[in-house]
Amino acid sequence: MSELETKIYQRANNHNIPALIRESLTDIWNSRFLSRQLAERDIKAQYRQSYLGIVWAFVSPLMTGAVWIFLNLSGTIQVSDTGIPYPVYAFSGTLIWSILTESINTPGNSTRGARGLISKINFPKEALVVSGIYKMFFNSFLKILMLVLFVFLFGVGFHWSILLLPVAILAALIMGTTIGLFITPISMLYSDVSRIIGMGLGFLMYITPVVYSIPGSGLMRVLMLYNPFTPLIVTTRDLLVGATPQFLTYFLIAFLVCIPLLFIGLVFYRISIPIIVERSN
């Protein structure tokens, strides 16, 4: 009988980034079955004791969009012309934003949820991140179906660009996951960080064209144009409704920049695990 592997967690002295990336990717591949099992367990547990079940995945973004639609229809606020029916604009913006924010929060939520296992069981910790990504794909698929439903429900109709919608959603997931990988180790050590991130995302929503379009001038226009989330929201919505993408170049640059940052984020996550385990004991 072969001996069980013993793994001792300690501060990593390996600064060979390519080697760390290879190790991280190898562990992701080797733990693919575990990742899927964790994701299935969490998805079932999430909706098992809920009467409305999976409907809760849509409630928050839909309610946010509904509030803005009510305020616009009642004349409480005046929203500049969006070029498409405002319900489509508001609902698509809030659903896309919810996908982005969920992808930011998922690495941290998945890791914190398994915090008790990290120091007790030897398994690739990247499996926690991948299981969270599986859950994101599941929830995002449902939201994409809802987005397409809105397009037909409000008479926008079918456009060939809608076939590229999954690519835009994937870019949002990559950007969010990348940010989440850098935030997770810090938020696990200091709980205040999670609260700050939550408040920060709430503020960022209002300087991103989620529920209203980019103004023609002023400080808000400058903030929106320099906001890295703007090309993701706008490009995804443009593809959804068949409009010419306004920020396609900006979108591609943001997407390409996030790819190497994603691998660096994985390395940061991998290196930080021994520190987190040490502080947890």
Task: Characterize this entry briefly.
This protein has 281 residues and is mainly alpha-helical. Helices cover 72% and strands 0% of the residues.
Question: Explain this structure to me?
Answer:
By secondary structure, the chain is mostly helical. The chain has one domain. It is built from 11 helices and no strands. It has helices at 17-30, 32-48, 56-73, 86-113, 115-118, 126-153, 165-189, 191-205, 219-226, 230-241, 248-280. Helix 2 crosses helix 6 (126-153), helix 4 (86-113) crosses helix 7 (165-189) and helix 6 (126-153) crosses helix 7. The radius of gyration is 20 Å and the shape is globular. The relative contact order is 0.15. The model is unreliable at 9-13 (pLDDT under 50).
Jot down its keywords.
0% strand, 72% helix, mainly alpha, 11 helices, 281 residues
Number of domains: 1
Spans where pLDDT lies below 50 across 5 or more residues? 9-13
As a percent range, the share of strand residues is under 5%
User: Could you spell the SSE succession in H and E letters?
Assistant: HHHHHHHHHHH
Helix content: over 70%
Q: Helix count, per DSSP?
A: 11
